[in-house]
Design brief:
- By secondary structure, the protein is of the alpha/beta class.
- The protein has a domain of 221 residues: FAD/NAD(P)-binding domain (3-Layer(bba) Sandwich).
- The chain is built from 11 helices and 18 strands.
- The strands form 3 sheets. Strands 1, 2, 8, 9, 10, 11, 17 and 18 form an 8-stranded mixed sheet that branches. A 7-stranded mixed sheet has the order 6-5-13-14-15-12-16, sandwiched between helices. The protein has a 3-stranded antiparallel sheet with strand order 3-7-4.
- The radius of gyration is 21 Å and the shape is globular.
- It starts with a strand and ends with a helix.
- The chain binds flavin-adenine dinucleotide.
- Flavin-adenine dinucleotide binds next to helix 1, strand 12, strand 16 and helix 6.
């Protein structure tokens, strides 16, 4: 009997495993792939994500990381630069391929004492007579645990096996990316274009290693064709950036963005959902890594407290605090993001926002900081205070 089985070693799973192993619990990570492995992503880490990495003890001073100083928004012939906030969070962001990042994080969890089993696909939950999750099944047989963490990503087969489907009233996005050799590789602003699609955006993120991560994200519509969208949009970018077929170093690959707490509840007896499995991508930005890492920390705090309680009733009450903690941290923000996602589904709203918003830089800066959650939590500047107030008064569901 293990204390905790973590299913999936993406950022969510490795972070929760690392926190739990550090607190002395016996943790087993089951991962279907083997490291190093690819994961389709934009590879952009905001200061919020950097903060979580530092908390996990990741050395972000080592070679291999590329530092960013903020965002550059481009649309309707205008551009707006938004530096990362200067305050309680690190003043820089980072980029790093997920091939590197995910391996680095899982190795940290192992160093902290967690056991990793690669090439082990979890095939389903193991239930007791009361219907409580008491472990998982794999091709090798049954593995029992006091608690299971579903960190198995957007499709979370483990959650689906328990009847936890994505909510239909939540937005879902799709995004695709490709790497290109490009002289833009050392641009220290994350470039975001608002033009490629009415309810979407394009990005060019410098990786600092001679390549850029280039992609598009859009709200899922029945006929969303991200490959065509990406290639059409690339023809509008300056030719000297070299974002051409000859300079592409990978194929185009896409995946879903489960947003705004799209799968709930985040706790059912015996099972906690963390990261994309619980739909923890910010609906207005498509950012998911910071939220996965933050949820992992909150989940670990709850699990550690709960497993130390002497009775089943006390443990259950302690576990119930995890969904509430998630909502307190980001619920208001995700509600705002969902409202934004609904609004931009109407093409003219996005066009108006791009055209008029970017010609009012002060206003746009505040709106982007609030929607992208790039304010300083506890900061005293107007966007920080407005963001904190708005997320407090916004109803959460
Ligand atoms: C194209 C694209 C671009 C993006 N760009 C950004 C960005 O720039 N910045 C950002 O912050 N976010 C971005 N995101 C979102 C981000 O990638 C996710 O939010 C993040 O990966 C969530 O981490 P996770 O650990 O929850 O899930 P994942 O990273 O998906 O990890 C899940 C893990 O579980 C494993 N697994 C799955 N099923 C099983 C099973 N049955 N048994 C064992 N193991 C299993 C998988 O192999 C995987 O290792 C992007 C997403 C996409 C699709």
């Amino acid at each position: 009997m293990t204390d905790v089985i973590v299913v999936g070693a993406g950022p969510a799973g490795s972070a929760v495993a690392c926190h739990l192993a550090r607190s002395g619990l016996d943790v087993l990570i089951l991962e279907k792939t083997a490291f190093p492995r690819e994961k389709v992503c934009g590879d952009g880490l905001t200061p919020r994500a950097v903060q979580e990495l530092v908390t996990l003890g990741v050395d972000v001073e080592e070679p291999g990381w590329f530092r960013t100083s903020g965002l550059r928004l481009v649309g309707a012939g205008r551009r707006l630069e938004i530096p990362w906030p200067d305050g309680s969070l690190p003043s820089y962001g980072l980029t790093r391929t997920r091939r590197d990042l995910d391996e680095l994080l899982v190795r940290r969890a192992v160093k902290a004492g967690a056991t990793l089993q690669e090439g082990t696909k979890v095939t389903g939950p193991l239930l007791n007579r009361a219907g409580q999750v008491v472990g998982v099944t794999t091709a090798a047989g049954e593995q029992h645990a006091r608690l299971v963490v579903a960190a198995d990503g957007a499709s979370s087969r483990l959650s689906v096996a328990l009847g936890l489907y994505p909510r239909r009233d939540r937005p879902i996005g799709v995004a695709a990316r490709r790497y290109y050799r490009s002289p833009r590789h050392d641009d220290d602003l994350l470039g975001v274009w608002l033009d490629p699609a009415p309810a979407g955006y394009g990005w060019v993120f410098g990786m600092g290693d001679g390549t850029c991560n280039v992609g598009v994200a859009l709200l899922r519509t029945p006929h969303a064709d991200y490959r065509r969208l990406l290639s059409r949009w690339l023809t509008t970018l300056p030719p000297e950036w070299g974002l051409t077929e000859e300079n592409a170093t990978t194929p185009v690959r896409g995946a879903a963005l489960p947003m705004g707490f799209s799968r709930q509840p985040h706790y059912v007896p015996g099972l906690v959902l963390v990261g994309d499995s619980g739909g923890m991508v910010n609906p207005s930005s498509g950012e998911g890594i910071a939220y996965a890492l933050e949820a992992a920390r909150l989940a670990a705090e709850t699990i550690e407290t709960a497993l130390a309680r002497p009775t089943a009733g006390q443990r259950e009450r302690a576990f119930q605090r995890y969904p509430a903690a998630l909502k307190t941290a980001n619920g208001g923000h995700f509600t705002l993001g969902r409202a934004f996602a609904r609004a931009v589904e109407h093409p003219h709203v996005m066009r108006l926002a791009t055209r008029h918003g970017l010609s009012h830089p002060a206003l746009m800066r505040v709106a982007i900081k609030i929607l992208g959650n790039i304010t300083d939590p506890g900061g005293h500047r107007a966007p920080d205070r407005l963001a904190a107030a708005l997320s407090k008064i916004t109803p959460v569901s």
